[in-house]
Amino acid sequence: MDSMDPAVTVKQNFDDLLFSADHPGRAKTDTYYVNEGTVLRTHTSAHQGEVLRSGLAEGYLLTADVYRRDEIDVSHYPVFHQMEGIRIFDKAALEREAAVEAPAGTKGTVIEDAPISESNPVQSVHTRREAELVAEHLKRSLESMVRDLFGDDAGLQIRWIEAYFPFTSPSWEMEVLYQGKWLELLGCGVIEQQILDNTGNKDRIGWAFGLGLERIAMVLFGIPDIRLFWSTDPRFLSQFKEGQITKFQSFSKYPACYKDISFWCPEDFHDNDFAEVVRDVAGDMAEDVQLIDQFVHPKTNKVSRCFRINYRAMDRTLSNEEVDKVQDELRRASSERLKVTLR
């Protein structure tokens, strides 16, 4: 998707996908706003309308970088990669087009399904039969994909969990049991008919899914820290070859250096705003940030927060003096940008 600009309109990113006006995803604490009407796409679905209007195919996959303001830890990064898939059908030929065969063999077992229900309902414009056909095609298609991805794990199991997304109904999340741990893999569902109608597909019905590529890669390749995907260190890059899944071999583990910062917060303070300041000041030296203490003054009702920043470089040992300089700059930047009162 290099041809599609990562800066999209608020309408593309939220309105066209039926996000409510008060949806938390719209908040400036969660989304990077270029200006009032433009954001950095928070999901590949921002281009869904554009592709559906083209009418070039009955199905497609979109892969792109997406951007979100989030916490700092080894599994979150402000930019990551997402893949979205959509499959649409002619309503008049749905029985034929959405027919699926039972998967061959027993590899990969759905141990828990989540059928359509009152809490995960059929859209009023769809019949139950239509929704069931599309949902069945969706689930069997994604289960097949997962078997191909995780097929070397004899203990692989799959389960479906009811979910909510503004742009699908009914909706589900898929989890897989991989190497003894449940992993939330993707979200999916039957596309809201209003989205199809608005893109010139009134006679169509379909499904969509979205997944984070780094999340899958971290599990498959045993990569412990999402920052490594941005590394140019040959000790990392040389371990992988196209078309092969090999487990990452740690080449070093440099010691961490912890520093705490505490301050009184203004009323509009948000943890993600502090995370942005940490990223701007410390960059990838900040491995994670944890809220370790919170205090409400009994007389003034002012809130004090104490955060612990874990500084750790992936290519060298950080000196305490080096980290102290970064911490001093962080204190200054936090005071100036967030209007906090340092303690």
Residue fraction in strands: 25-35%
Radius of gyration: 23 Å
For the biggest β-sheet, the strand order reads 4-5-10-9-8-7-6
Percent in helix: 25-40%
Largest sheet: 7 strands, mixed
The low-confidence runs, each spanning 5 or more residues with pLDDT under 50, are none
Q: What is the string of helix and strand elements? A: EHEEHEEHEHEEEHEHHEHEEHE
Number of E-type strands: 14
Helical stretch tally: 9
| Content-based structural category | alpha+beta
Tell me the overall shape: globular
Distance between the termini: 46 Å
Mean pLDDT: 92
Description:
The longest helix has 23 residues. With 343 residues, this protein is α+β, with helices and mostly antiparallel strands. Helices cover 26% and strands 30% of the residues.
Task: Name the descriptors.
alpha+beta; 343 residues; 26% helix
Summary of the model, kept short:
The protein contains nine helices and 14 strands.
Topology (elements, then pairings):
Elements: E1 7-9, H1 10-13, E2 33-35, E3 38-40, H2 48-54, E4 59-67, E5 79-90, H3 94-97, E6 109-112, H4 128-150, E7 157-162, E8 168-178, E9 181-191, H5 193-198, E10 204-212, H6 213-221, H7 234-237, E11 257-265, H8 271-282, E12 286-296, E13 303-311, H9 320-338, E14 341-342
Parallel strand pairs: 6-7
Antiparallel strand pairs: 1-3, 2-3, 4-5, 5-10, 7-8, 8-9, 9-10, 11-13, 11-14, 12-13
Helix pairs in contact: 8-9
